[in-house]
Structures are given as structure tokens and as C-alpha cells.
Design a protein that fits this description.
Distance between the termini: 8 Å
Order of helices and strands: EHEHEEH
Low-confidence stretches: none
CATH class: Alpha Beta
CATH architecture: 3-Layer(aba) Sandwich
Largest sheet: 4 strands, mixed
Helix content: 40-55%
Radius of gyration: 11 Å
Structural class: alpha+beta
CATH superfamily: Glutaredoxin
């Protein structure tokens, strides 16, 4: 599973990264987490409001920080 966190590194982006890490550990999932900070690359996903969460190249959340339980559910579906 490939997970990308889209954002410039703001506080919300860091919270999203922490939630993603916690969810992956809780699931015991094998996942690669990548941080995308380039605005052109972020816009390429159609995300205009960060942070954004991409799972296997599909944008699943943008403009807000999902809870750990929501991230866990999103990862389980992937």
C-alpha cells in the first residue's frame, strides 16, 4: 500500500502524518508513507486545500485532518 500525505509541512500536515502512522501500526499493515510538499505535485492530485491524504494514488481526504479511526477505516478499505 502506498500512502501520501500532501501538504507543505504545517501543523495540520504533521497531525495527519501522526494519525496515519498510528493507524498503520494499529492495523499492522505494510505501507510506504511519502510526504509530498511540492505545490505543483499537490495540485496535480486536484487538491487545493491541504492537508491531503492519498491511498494508492486515490485522493481520499483533503482540506482537513481525519481522526485515527477514520484513517484506519480508509486504510482497511484500500
Amino acid at each position: 500500500m502506498n500512502v501520501k500525505i500532501l501538504g507543505p509541512g504545517c501543523a495540520n500536515c504533521k497531525r495527519l502524518e501522526a494519525n496515519v502512522t498510528e493507524a498503520i501500526e494499529a492495523l499492522g499493515a505494510a505501507a510506504t508513507v511519502e510526504k509530498v510538499t511540492d505545490y505543483g505535485a499537490i495540485a496535480g492530485y486536484g487538491v487545493m486545500s491541504t492537508p491531503g491524504l492519498v491511498i494508492d494514488e486515490a485522493v481520499v481526504v483533503s482540506g482537513r485532518v481525519p481522526s485515527v479511526s477514520e484513517v484506519t477505516a480508509l486504510l482497511s478499505r484500500a
